[in-house]
Amino acid sequence: MRTCANRQSVVKVSPEAAASKVRPGLTLAQARALCPGLEVGEHDPQRDRQALLALARWMGRFSPAVAVAPAPEPATPTRGKPAQPAPDAILIDLSGCERIAAMWAGESPGADCRRPMLTAIRAALARFRIAARAAIAPTVGAAWAAALAAPQDAVILDATTLRRDLAGLPVETLRIDPDLADTLRHLGLTTIGHLMQLPRESVAGRFGPLLLRRLDQCLGILHESIEPLRPDEPVEGSMDFDGPVDCPQTLRRAFDLLLGPLLDRLRLRDAAAREIAVELRRPYGPPIRRTLGLARPSRDAGRIGRLFSLAVERLDPDDYANPEGTALGDGFVGMKLRIERPPRVDDEQLTLLEQQEQIAQRELDDLLDRLAMRLGRQAIVKARPVESHRPERAWEPQRAWEADRAPEPAGRPDPRRPVAAAHRVRPLTLLPTPAPVPMMTRPDDALDGRPVAFTHHGHTHRLVRVVGPERIAGEWWTGHDKTRDYFDATDTEGRRFWLFRVTQTRRWFLHGVFA
Amino acid sequence: MPLITLHQGRLEVGGSVAVLDPGRVFRTGLAALDELAPGGGFVRGGVHELLYSPKEAPPATVAMLLARAATTRPDAPPAPLVWCDVDDPPYPPAMASAGIDLSRLYLLRPDAAAVAWTVAQCLRCRGIGAVVARVDRLGRVEARKLQLACEEGAGTGILLRPDNRFAAEHAATTRWRVEPAPIEAGPAHETPPAQRWKLTLAHGHGGCTGRVIFLEVFRDPMFRFSAKPADRAVRGPGQLVHRRASPASSRRSA
Question: Distance from the CA of B52 to the CA of which of A54, A234, A356, B39 falls in 20 to 30 A?
């Protein structure tokens, strides 16, 4: 039922109500007169559409290409006439999905599995208590016509007998304007077969190009593609403030109000937010943009809200300066949120997160998000071992963000990754670049000389124990052809150093301190 | 009448400390070091400070020894470890050699103004096993905040603090002064350690303040630690001879 001013009219009817002659277009009073026990509900097209989108996404388990039928285009553009609402139809492209269907049906991959597929789809819809008509056909138009014409049975049309099967179906099933269908019916053209017998040019000339196009699409003469739903379609929302807002608490309140419906939409899609782009519009000057990133997808409004508060607190004062150089005390006049590429998260996953053993992990994720927001993502790294002979190249920082997003599979170690060299003695403090040091050496038979004392930062260290050398050859293939002889040396006061001599130049360097 | 108090998970009866919850205390496995720590181990959810001379490099090895013990769990992978430093982080391959799981190690590099905030955030998080941080200056309020954050979370804070004029302000459970110590020539049949530190308990309940131990690390096998009290001297294999602890002897041995 739709309420328009003080008139309540029937929009859609159930089969039971239709049996009592209730039909769309009647007023509520007329409908109640026809069927006294009528149950009515307010028509909310937007909610219906969202539910249909959610169902279409759920249908993604049958095929990756699922689309919601677009709104029909009128046969002739007429002014003042309300546009036809989009039909409640879901189009599924099943080509190439035979193997999955065969797996369900327990048959060999070569067998015709359209029937078990259709049965499975209908059973799934029946579980949701959704009354639906379904058909499988070689073209979108044919499937549409077959589904509309045969509401009770699941129809499957073959490409070979398509023309014959379609010939008996009524013209209303051609996705055309009801007025046009009435005209055709009035002229005695009641079935698609009648239209097929007419000369093509007269069909186009008399009834407009749409009818011919629908007929061609139905028969496969004209190609028709469907626009599948993108699973990672961004979710966005915006809000304009009545006046400029510069108070962080008010901005947070507005953010929460805006975020709630977006998270609800994600929940319908079984998705969660991982990156939220926030745009704060200013009355003058370009908007300020911030990205709230989460280590793990979440639909926790509180968690995302805290990140927003951190971002607002840390807004760069330079951002507030307008081109004239005066401080902008005008605040913000609007906010826009956009959740990019929301990944799918199963509800089970979120439930698991609630369990005791996962609480620590969740808190760690929250912590990383907060730290990244305050310190920047580059300030939080994990160490990744690298296969390199040169000690300073034996590891590389990897942003914790990326490292945690792509966790390596546990179990068998990757043969390309070097195992931590447990037998090698390395200092915990490695200088960023080796510091050249003047070294006093004493002659040695086997070597070019053993270190005795060196000076660093004006302090002379007399070495009492020297272990080495450990020879590390240069990576000549990267242009570093110097060979280093490393020594582990302890001075008289107990300090321990890691020194090396370049064999080619005989220069000494301090590379690390065992602290 | 015995005085019974409950303090940070430890039941104290008339001055003697009984450990109420073993999960609240971790041990390094070095008996001499653990015995010196109040309550027979290092308290989880507490801040432990390592003081070092500003002329020396921060004692990262001792910090790593404590962090490794704090993050080790009996039947689970090690808890995450955060190492926070405004300068370059410790050399990860050396940490891997010492038994730190690099996949559980987070290296943070905050600016100097954000160190205290960062450490407090990490300590408050129950997902973190231990936080090692070099903190050059810390006020009394910030030190107390860190201790409270530690008690709120379950992790252990290990702060590397230079022994400067700011070092007097603290709220730590234990404080240790760490200095490098020269290696004395031992008996010929014994493998000399690769490095030695002198650890002095500068603060901690339990009446052991001022006691000194020597922590040694051996080259073979890698990162084999040993700790021995300064008032004991090894005379022969397996024989320990007690010696009176006196400032003079500890100075001599240092």
Answer: B39
Tokens of B2: 């015995």
Q: What is the ipTM of this complex?
A: 0.79
Determine contact, residues B135/B160, Cβ cutoff 8 Å. yes
Flag whether residue A391 sits within 8 Å of chain B, measured between CB atoms: yes
Determine whether the interchain pair B107/A425 forms a contact, defined as Cβ–Cβ distance below 8 Å. Answer: no
DSSP, collapsed to helix, strand or coil, labels residue A425 as: coil
Q: Which two tokens stand for residue A324?
A: 């004239």
DSSP secondary structure of B57-97: PP-HHHHHHHHHHHH-BTTBPPPPEEEE-SSPPP-HHHHHH
3.40.50.740, 3.40.50.300, 3.90.25.10, 1.10.150.20: which CATH number matches B23-253?
3.40.50.300
B95 in reach of chain A (CB within 8 A): yes
Report pLDDT digits (tens) over A406-441: 555 444 444 444 444 445 788 888 888 899 999 888
Tell me how far apart the alpha carbons of residues B26 and A12 are, in angstroms, rounded to a whole number.
Answer: 70
DSSP A467: E
B-chain residues near A423 (CB < 8 A): 222
Nearest CA in chain B to A375: B110
Residues of A in contact with B125 (CB under 8 A): 363-364, 366-367
Query: What's this model's pTM, rounded to 2 decimal places?
Result: 0.61
Q: Quote the CA–CA distance of A265 and A271 in Å, as a whole number.
A: 9
- Which residues on B lie below 8 Å from A489 (Cβ)? none
Task: Determine whether the interchain pair A514/B56 forms a contact, defined as Cβ–Cβ distance below 8 Å.
Answer: no
Give the list of residues 6+ apart from residue A357 with CB closer than 8 angstroms, or none: none
The pLDDT value recorded for residue B221 is 62
Residue ranges and CATH numbers for the domains of chain A are: 2-34 (no CATH), 45-74+85-219 (no CATH), 235-375 (3.30.1490.100), 429-514 (no CATH)
Chain centre to alpha carbon of residue A372: 21
Lowest mean pLDDT among A15-19, A139-143, B114-118, B126-130: A15-19
